[in-house]
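Re: [ENG-882] Designed sequences occasionally contain unexpected residues at chain ends

Forwarding the minimal case from QA. Structure tokens:
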């Protein structure tokens, strides 16, 4: 199908603790950490989530024993807001060659139809790259409002998650999500895993973090894993810089 959903990784209590770490960090950051990139290099909590043994075992069963974290970012829809994610494919704009990749979406709050959980088109990862129209819709979460127009939404599968559950999907799987009509924030940590032989083709240098196995290719600079659960002002500045760099690559 190109995705799996509803796999338990954390207890509800563990998910609540990681949500607290996130929201404490947002107070230091001065606003939402929504779509801020490489958060595992500045905060211990997302690093622990991205390297959770249960999650890495799942990823390894899909792409093999050698795993890099390419990026981590919180994707947050505030309560009762119109923000949405249009139908798209991830691998279109990352600049990575090959297909040995999987994205994880780990829920830290309830993610159901009312709060705007993800929806997937089964088998769409086998279609190859689809044409995507870019735009500048302020309510579209995506960097370029990129949208695949010809999607049969009657085929979509709703991937509802409770706090602590994860879904995984391939970078060519067509997916989207609707606005959050609930009274709580919809919070998930998105983690992009790749194999070390996936080369960056848009720019001459990029970075990743080896979290399991070996890297015989050395295509990427080594990201530094976070050690502190609290966000320091210096680390917040690094996150802003990392986000600018990611957007430069993905938006080119």
């Amino acid at each position: 199908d190109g995705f799996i959903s509803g796999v338990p990784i954390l207890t509800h209590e563990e998910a609540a603790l990681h949500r607290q770490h996130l929201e404490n960090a947002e107070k230091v950051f001065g606003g939402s950490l929504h779509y801020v990139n490489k958060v595992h290099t500045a905060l211990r909590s997302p690093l622990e989530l991205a390297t959770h043994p249960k999650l890495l075992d799942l990823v390894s069963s899909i792409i093999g024993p050698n795993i890099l974290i390419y990026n981590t970012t919180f994707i947050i829809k505030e309560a009762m807001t119109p923000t949405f994610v249009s139908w798209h494919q991830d691998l279109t704009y990352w600049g990575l060659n090959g297909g040995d990749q999987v994205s994880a979406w780990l829920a830290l709050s309830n993610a159901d139809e009312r709060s705007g959980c993800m929806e997937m088109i089964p088998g769409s990862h086998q279609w190859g790259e689809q044409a995507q129209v870019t735009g500048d819709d302020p309510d579209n979460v995506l960097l370029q409002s990129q949208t695949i127009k010809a999607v049969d939404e009657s085929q979509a599968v709703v991937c509802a998650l409770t706090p602590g559950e994860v879904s995984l999907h391939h970078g060519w799987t067509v997916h989207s999500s609707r606005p959050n009509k609930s009274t709580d924030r919809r919070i998930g940590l998105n983690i992009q895993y790749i194999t070390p032989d996936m080369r960056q083709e848009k720019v001459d240098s990029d970075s990743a973090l080896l979290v399991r196995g070996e890297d015989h290719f050395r295509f990427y600079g080594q990201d530094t894993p976070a050690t502190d659960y609290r966000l320091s002002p210096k680390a917040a500045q690094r996150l802003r810089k990392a986000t600018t760099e990611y957007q430069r690559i993905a938006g080119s």
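QA comment: On inspection the terminal residues look reasonable. The radius of gyration is 17 Å. Proposing we downgrade this to a documentation issue.
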